[in-house]
Amino acid sequence: MDNSKGKKSEIIKSLQASSIRCCSDKVCPVLVACTVIPSVNGVIWAGVFRPQNQDPENSALALYDISNVRGQVKGFCAYDEKQCGSESGGELQPLSVVFKYSSMSAVAAMRIESWIVLFIGTSYGQLIKLVLDEKFRQVCPTVLFKSDDERAVFTKMHFDPVDFKHIYIALKKQLRRVSVIQCAKYSTLKDCRAARDPVCGWCVNTHRCSTQDECSNTSWVSIPKNSLETQLFSFQMTENYSRKADINI
């Protein structure tokens, strides 16, 4: 809906909608959780789906471009409208089905440059971090947290509004604050680069893997800003004019 409209009835009339479908290999009509992914160009919406009445443990995470939705919702109209809109606009197909996993129950997302970082909760207490490049290709997912008694992660998850370095997840009778950054566990440049985490980079002067704000007034070598295919070449001159090079082919 267009919230800039002056009257409530005009806002309601501006509602645009479309049917969505997931997925090509197996129909998954039940929407479990969803989130909007911040984007400069367009709006990407992520949804977790599962089958109905069969294979309830299987679930899929799909991305959709909802920037140009122009359909109407059947039976939905403003109070002063004489006739409600009829359903139209066709079906939206996924841009990509980025992840298939057992019993996904929640999803949240952040964007770092052109990278998408997804945080996925499961029905048996896992919090998974999944990084996607600009072509929606994934880095190997990592488990950030797992509950001892496999309590389900509830649908809504929220980032810490101060620094976005933690995420709050709700489990049965529990609220957990989980760090989404694990740069310190990578002790070498090779390991830091191999992690393919857009949050983490190698701090040249301190010789450790860290976030950029922890590496002030010095060189910070991160993964390429756009794609997993991009190669890294960094070059630094020191005060005694010797040269150092970090190369990853």
Task: Give an account of the 3D structure.
This protein has two helices and 18 strands. With 249 residues, it is mainly beta. The protein has two domains: 8-180, Methylamine Dehydrogenase, Chain H (7 Propeller); 185-248, ligand-binding face of the semaphorins, domain 2. It has a four-stranded antiparallel sheet, with no helix packed on it. A four-stranded antiparallel sheet has the order 7-8-9-10, with no helix packed on it. Strands 11-12-13 form a three-stranded antiparallel sheet, with no helix packed on it. It is globular, with a radius of gyration of 22 Å.
The CATH superfamily name of the largest domain is: YVTN repeat-like/Quinoprotein amine dehydrogenase
* Spatial strand sequence of the major β-sheet: 2-3-4-6
Query: What percent strand?
Result: 35-45%
> Based on helices, strands and strand pairing, what is the structural class?
mainly beta
For the CA atoms, what is the radius of gyration? Answer: 22 Å
CATH architectural label of the largest domain = 7 Propeller
Summed up, the domain count is: 2
Q: The CATH topology of the largest domain is what?
A: Methylamine Dehydrogenase, Chain H
Which features does this protein show?
5% helix, disordered C terminus, ligand-binding face of the semaphorins, domain 2, four-stranded antiparallel sheet, 249 residues, mainly beta
In short:
Helix content is 5%, strand content 40%. The protein contains two helices and 18 strands.
SSE diagram, text form:
Layout: H1 8-13, E1 19-20, E2 30-37, E3 44-50, E4 58-65, E5 91-92, E6 96-102, E7 104-112, E8 115-122, E9 126-132, E10 142-146, E11 157-159, E12 166-171, E13 174-179, H2 189-194, E14 201-203, E15 208-210, E16 220-222, E17 232-237, E18 243-248
Parallel strand pairs: 1-5
Antiparallel strand pairs: 2-3, 3-4, 4-6, 7-8, 8-9, 9-10, 11-12, 12-13, 14-15, 14-16, 17-18
